[in-house]
Amino acid sequence: MGRACLLALGLLVCAEPGLAAAPAWPSPGQELRYTVFFGNLRPVGTASYRVAPDGESVLTLKVSDRGRGPNLVAKLRLDAAGIPLQEHLVGVDYWQTPIDESFQIVHGKAAWSSVAEKGEKKLSRPSYWVTRTAGNPDLGLLAMALFGSPGHVLPLLPEGVARMEAAGSARVTAKGESRNLTLYAISGLSYTPVYVWIDESGLFFGRYDGFATVVPEGWEEVALELIRIQTTATMARQKTDAARLSHRPAGPVVFKGARLFDAETATVRPGMTVVVSGNRIQAVGADGKVRIPRGAQILDARGQTLLPGLWDMHQHFIEPYGIRDIAAGVTSARDLGNDPEFLSNLGKKWDAGEGIGPRILMAGVIEGPGPYAAPTQALADTEEKALDWVNRYAGYGAVQIKIYSSLDPKLVPPIVGEAHRRGMRVSGHIPNGMTVAQAVREGFDEVQHINFLFLDFIPGVDTRTLARMSAVAEHAAEIDLDSEPVRAFLRLLKEKKTVVDPTLNLYEDLFTGRIDKIQPTLAPVASRLPYQVRRTLMAGNLPVPPGMEQRFRDSYRACLALVRRLYEEGIPIVAGTDSQPGFGLHTELELYVEAGIPAPEVLRIATLGAARVMKRDGDLGAVAPGKLADLLLVKGDPTKNIRDIRRATVVVKDGVIFKPAELYREIGVKPAV
Predict the structure, then answer these.
(1) 3-class DSSP state for residue 415?
(2) What is the mean pLDDT of residues 305-331?
(3) pLDDT tens, residue by residue, 135-148
(4) Could you state, in order of their start, the residue ranges of all structural domains in the chain?
(5) Strand ranges in 265-353 using DSSP code E only, listed in sequence order
(6) Cys-Cys crosslink for 592: which of 259, 279, 477, 597, Cβ 3.0 to 4.6 Å?
(7) In angstroms, rounded to a whole number, what is the distance separating the alpha carbons of residues 89 and 74?
(8) Environment class of residue 53 by beta-carbon count within 10 Å: exposed (0-12), middle (13-18) or buried (19+)?
């Protein structure tokens, strides 16, 4: 039969079939390299592995994405089965925050230390240390160890169990060479399985996580085919899960005794009955005043609040996000930059019940070429190319164009003109060299991210770079929101009816998060999350220059204050996250209340307000006869305590009933109390 071998980011380990793996190291000095892609297969970096003359293994990951990206080096020593005995990981994470993690096993005791965690554990059996750094740069090494372990199962350190099982197959060819590959799913690391490709000899070939892709150098041309096959396999799994977790009523469904949130008036009407028939709301009225259809399923909603389904107006979907949105009550979501074919197919499958996820409204991103370009194929440096992308997106059903930071400002007017002619909205980042005021005058309907509004008053910032965030963290607190320039700016936004998508939760983490603490936005739910997920939550903040801790916090408070000003001035706000699906929207709504917007108004923003902005209020955004049956039932009253929005008991999308407790258990999350 020959030997089975596995390459995990360069580590070659071989074993006789049926036996535990035994290492056969590459020659000292030999380097094995992989290409890293983001988004639509835009190369952004490399991963490599080599063995030093003294037997020490060196694993590197270098990614450059718009001035950010991880740059990590891990030095390891492994035992005969590929289990780390010693590891030291240093470098910077995606946001350029320093990383320094160490691990070792001595006399049967494991010990680990980093800025974020420190501990030790007596071992009774081989266990695999997983680095805390989000993205797990040593994932290939874990795949190797699982491949050689009995039953493809390994205990994890500090806690948990990883399992690997086959999920699909492919045959790929590049430059005259062919390989037979098997797709494996690794569970125990995240909410849903992590996938890796291994060839017929047992060699680790690469992976795709829904956004990032890794393949060996020289095999880049097969990446798209692997993504297609993996997507087909994962969608088949989602279809099976959806059939099990979706509850399709045999007849009408009646909610009785509910507090009904009236999105039109932003008030609550107690003791209400709502009748759903098929995928539409049939009747709404006071308890005892509405005819209950014969044979209807009755849901007792006493002590609970019934709302329209929530909208997340800023997401970038990958397949696993859908179930997390629905569990949180998000039944409609706007994707602000993704592969249009992937997104179109994903939305169709979710709407057909072949997966679990919200309704998707698609925005197509258009970017300019350059060193800081976003990971998209939609790059335009001429008017002809820009207009071609507008029309291509329209053909995919996009309702909006999102302009990005590297686009030449002279292309903004023709893009706006063509998009508006095609009935599409225009929004985005602010191209380098423009201000928000200029973009609004040129026809922007909406601006993404609260930081861009501050940049009109912080001169000299290159909006293509990380400075568009760090400069705001350093200077937003200095800006007088009562000054005439700011007032004039707000008058312009109001006059033009410009919508703002603040994504406050993103800036709470970036400005106030610290690497030794759980991200502020997920702290309320951290205890409910899978253990290995919780470990990754102590990251995601900007590096803080010495002496600037308080300034960063004050600048975040300035972000809250500006959002309140937007509301007070009557400037439309939409609630988007650009972060964690589901949980991120709950936090975003809580932050609006913290900023000073009344909770009922916040709920209107996240329901009817969003539907009106997207011109979908004829069918969505309110609980009223004739509307589509997108509903959220929560314990308590979020108009009085916005945190009750986290306590969902029933979610309805298009007449299909979902039980959040079931969905959360499916992804390893403890249900809300």
Answers:
(1) helix
(2) 97
(3) 677 888 888 889 88
(4) 4-244, 429-597
(5) 267-277, 280-286, 297-300, 304-308, 310-315, 330-335
(6) 597
(7) 4
(8) exposed
